[in-house]
Amino acid sequence: MSVGCTHTGNWYVQYRVPGLVSPRKEYFGKGEAGMNYAAKRADEIKSGHVFTIASLKGKTLYLDELAQVYLDFLKSQGKNESWRKSIASLVNNHFLPVLSYCPVDQLSFQDVMLVANRFSLKSIATRNRYLECLRTILNFGINQGLTTNNPMRTWKKAREPKREFKLTFDDLQRILDKAQPHLKWALEVLWELGTRPGNSELFRIKWEDIDYDGDVIRIRGTKTQTSDRLIPLTEYFKTRLLERQNQAQSEYVIEYNGHKVTNVKRSFRSALKEAGISYPVRLYDVRHLFASTMLANGADLKAVSKLLGHSTTRMTADVYYHELKGEKKRALLCKARLL
């Protein structure tokens, strides 16, 4: 087995699998991050604790084995640890208790429905996300030649009801006025940066992620290091960050009594009640208001898309195009008039 780097700078691990003539290669990207991922993978293969796809072909696999191979594959691709842990939690707590009684190739659609029933009290969006995770694992098995059956091949996502966003800037200000100090600061950071709320982005921000000289803050990607993004700091918010950092008791930008904040649902509900907000509001609605306000005031669609961390501008346009006031009329004015 060897660790190497291609002429284009891509790091890889090459190893032999019993029964195969040609060695296997796994690639991990460029730079120091790619080199570190390759070194970790090499240690795992040496230890014998990690399945390799080629060595499992031809075996009868159960879901626990297939899921482990999938998680190892994600790790080899440099996927974020917290994301992999969330998948492992779904597998261990919900998929395996129902689907581990027989090999994957013998699972049926009725088995999948038993899994779906475990999420009956969840929102449609959450059910769709959890079941999509299971389908991805099953498709991975087929694509890698490990299994031949996907009992979810006919499954389709349930249609999600269109959510109406009612939060206004004035109402956000009312909520801010009634919020507890840690929530008030979290809402201010969310409004300035437009991050995804919760532990995926907002509560993960550390003081070390801020470059005061470059006037930017790094938002850590939820899947890979390459999905990190830099958001410019306004002079006002830069000053606010410096003030807060002087009082900080932990490494995290948003904290409570020196500890990382992981959930503000209770304090957010209290602030909504105190502010007299009668319609449903989620923390995510602040991010939506962040984007829609900028677009309604003429901000560039691609710039807003980059700030939000969307993978494509099309994704942003599909959600926020209605905020681009006057775009249709401007488009019509671009053509010549028939005389």
From TrEMBL:
| Keywords for this protein | DNA recombination, DNA-binding
Q: Name one GO biological process term.
A: DNA recombination
Q: Record's InterPro entries?
A: DNA_brk_join_enz (IPR011010), Integrase-like_cat_sf (IPR013762), Integrase_catalytic (IPR002104), Integrase_recombinase_N (IPR010998), Phage_int_M (IPR053876), Tyrosine_recombinase_XerCD (IPR050090)
Q: Which residues form the Tyr recombinase domain?
A: 162-333
Which CDD domains has this protein been placed in?
A: INT_Rci_Hp1_C
GO molecular function list? DNA binding
PANTHER family, A to Z: PHAGE INTEGRASE-RELATED, PROPHAGE INTEGRASE INTD-RELATED
Give the family from UniProt.
Answer: Belongs to the 'phage' integrase family.
Q: What is this protein called?
A: Integrase family protein
What is the organism of origin for this protein? Solidesulfovibrio fructosivorans JJ]
